[in-house]
Amino acid sequence: MNPYEKKRRWKFFLLIFAILIGIASVFYTDSFVKKMQREEANQFQLWVKITERSMLLLDNEDFNSIVDDVRANTKMPVIVTNADGTILSSIGLDSTKTWYPVNDKLVYDSLYFVKELSKMKMQHKPLELNIFGDKKIAYYRDSFILTQLRYFPYIQMGVIFLFLLTAYAAFSSARKDEQDHVWVGLAKETAHQLGTPISSLMAWVELMKSKFDAEDDPLIAEMENDIKRLEIITDRFSKIGSKPILEDHVVYMVISNFIDYFKVRTSDKVKFTITGDEQVRAMLNVPLFDWVTENLLKNAANAIENEGSISINIIENLAKEQVFIDVTDSGKGIPRSKFDAVFQPGYTTRKRGWGLGLSLTKRIVENYHSGEIFVKDSELGKGTTFRIILKSSLTYEPTTA
């Protein structure tokens, strides 16, 4: 299992675990809320009975003290009305809108009561009070504490989710910075170690030329090309972690020069073609951009099992002052669900692949050249097209008639 698959599975397991914790919290809180609902319903029934009895025992001071205690401990808002809906009394509501004095009379906010009464009717069934044969109706709704408890698990899940998201982002950033430092150090050390054998190889080639009079030997020429290639690769590694210098280049020439080197080191069954605008220019760091081209061409060649073709088309977008570079192969294709995943570190379909080529390619294009790279199109069994978008180094002025 490659690192990308392991990471994806761990994320999936952690997500499932978090969902299970959330579900357990919601179910536990829901059972607790239902228990409190039953207790409040019993408390409301007790309040109704006490209220009925209090009218019959108005002169009993001991009973009146019990009534006062019950009312003081009633946490639910209550409204009592006549059978025709006229509001008679209330407890537990906003004191600024209920029974406040105006011109020596107690009045109430009718709109506020209508709203509160509609909430009570939606939540619970009312109970009747029988006071001296006159029927009254008592309504109530959940207490403020019970209402808070209903939303508590969702608020709790939100807070936990935000905390985990922040922690994940912080740890990921710290881990990424640490990995970047390790890779930069390793790359620079690799460049340093390659320097000595490359210098020796150059000296041995010069010695072979003079000893065997092989100045024009094509094999020696190819050996020199490979040594120059090693020098370029060493230069790439030495520049990792440093800001590269971008220079104005003809895109067609840069890609064409690399294809001339690359195609003689690839199977004869793979045909290379380069088409498009031969004059368009862009700001490039050639050693690093050759690395981009190499990774794309290697992936394209590996995707072709037998015979096939790789084509590079260079297009100029005058309106946006951009350069489009399309690399198309006739290989096995990429599933649409993997269009983004192919750029993830560790993602590979090869048994011996590291899955770093396209990830590195994306970083070079986006971070160093301020461009874009993505899978433009792919069809299983027919091939894939990668598109690179670079900023043109030419500025175009609109023509006037």
TrEMBL record:
GO molecular-function term, one example from the UniProt record: phosphorelay sensor kinase activity
Enzyme Commission numbers on file: 2.7.13.3
Membrane spanning stretches: 12-29, 151-171
InterPro entries listed in its UniProt record: HATPase_C_sf, HATPase_dom, His_kinase_dom, HisK_dim/P_dom, Sig_transdc_His_kin-like_C
Pfam hit, one: HATPase_c
Keywords recorded for this protein, A-Z: ATP-binding, Kinase, Membrane, Nucleotide-binding, Phosphoprotein, Transferase, Transmembrane, Transmembrane helix, Two-component regulatory system
PROSITE patterns: HIS_KIN
EC class of the enzyme, as a word: transferase
SMART domains assigned to the protein according to its UniProt record, in alphabetical order: HATPase_c
Catalysis performed (reactions): ATP + protein L-histidine = ADP + protein N-phospho-L-histidine
Domain Histidine kinase: 189-394
Entries under PANTHER family matching the protein: PEROXIDE STRESS-ACTIVATED HISTIDINE KINASE MAK3 (PTHR43065:SF10), SENSOR HISTIDINE KINASE (PTHR43065)
Protein's UniProt name: histidine kinase
